[in-house]
From TrEMBL:
GO terms for biological process: transmembrane transport. It comes from Lederbergia lenta (Bacillus lentus). This is Binding-protein-dependent transporters inner membrane component. Belongs to the binding-protein-dependent transport system permease family. CDD domains: TM_PBP2.
Length: 308
């Protein structure tokens, strides 16, 4: 009898433990469910619906007409404006991202030096453009690069250069938009690099100083190699952002020859100006594929660095 009671008590204890584990598991899923619900509604569903929409012709008011791969076929074979937007996007990315990341690395290196006083003030100042309203930035830069009364043309006149019609030329428009992007994001990337620099042992720099290395040699042979994973991360982030640049060209203007037209701005025009939502969805997916390619390149580079 006592043996039966002991067995029954053991079964009850196991049942209570299993019930408690099951309740804990359900509670865990309940706590994390809001994220997955919001991600499904605002992340997964729009992605799948856009893919579905890219195979249709739809002006949002009428019924959807299935056209298969026609939208993609038109993009690749019969839309020179799209390829011009792609070329503009890559040009602006190159003019903004490469100088931006180089300047951010130099700024972070200087902010990490022991001789610099008031580091907190400079760190706050360098990050301020990132939280400034992009509309205000566009207004200021449009005034600075004005043809007749712009500050930049006024300064160029001192060295004998005639006024440049920035908004009317291909290179000029790209330079202005790239300058806005660079001014806004250089501080953000500098803070990321600074966080990485603070994880590098100071003993390495002290040993380099003893060996007679100057600041430039320390930057090239200590800082840059040890920051490679972070540099790859910022390159990826800047590339993704550069492929989706929208606000700057929208506010500054695309120009008479569409020299400021980017892929996302072209997508916006197709969807909300011409109401070709199926065609815009195809543009969005093509842009998504480009971003995936860059992400895969980043993963391969990261693995290669880790294996060295």
């Amino acid at each position: 009898m006592e043996k039966k009671l002991a067995i029954q008590e053991s079964i009850n204890i196991r049942g209570r433990k299993y019930s408690q584990k099951s309740a804990d598991r359900r509670s865990g899923y309940l706590f994390i469910s809001p994220f997955f619900i919001l991600f499904g509604v605002f992340g997964v569903f729009p992605l799948l619906f856009t893919a579905y929409l890219s195979f249709h012709k739809w002006d949002i008011l009428g019924s959807k007409e299935f056209v298969g791969f026609r939208n993609y076929q038109l993009l690749f074979t019969n839309d020179p404006l799209f390829w011009k937007a792609v070329g503009n996007t890559f040009s602006i990315w190159a003019l903004s991202t490469i100088p931006q990341l180089m300047a951010a690395l130099v700024i972070a290196f200087l902010l990490n030096q022991a001789f610099l006083k008031g580091k907190a003030f400079f760190r706050l100042g360098i990050f301020m453009p990132n939280v400034t309203s992009i509309v205000a930035v566009a207004i200021v830069f449009s005034a600075m690069f004005g043809t007749k009364y712009g500050v930049i043309n006024y300064l160029l006149s001192f060295i004998g250069i005639d006024p440049i019609h920035w908004a009317g030329s291909y290179i000029g428009t790209h330079v202005v938009i790239s300058a806005m992007v660079m001014w806004r994001w250089v501080g953000y990337n500098a803070i990321i690099y600074l966080a990485g620099l603070q994880g590098i042992s100071k003993d390495l720099y002290e040993a380099a100083i003893i060996d007679g290395a100057n600041k430039m040699q320390q930057l090239l042979y200590i800082t840059v190699p040890l920051l490679k994973p972070i540099i790859i991360f910022t390159v990826l982030q800047s590339t993704i952002g550069g492929m989706q640049i929208f606000t700057e060209p929208l506010l500054f203007g695309v120009g008479g020859s569409n020299q400021g037209l980017t892929v996302t701005l072209y997508l916006y025009q197709e969807a909300f100006t011409r109401f070709s939502f199926g065609y815009a969805a195809a543009i969005a997916w093509l842009l998504f594929i480009i971003i995936i390619i860059f992400s895969l390149i980043n993963v391969l580079l990261t693995k290669r660095i880790k294996s060295v």
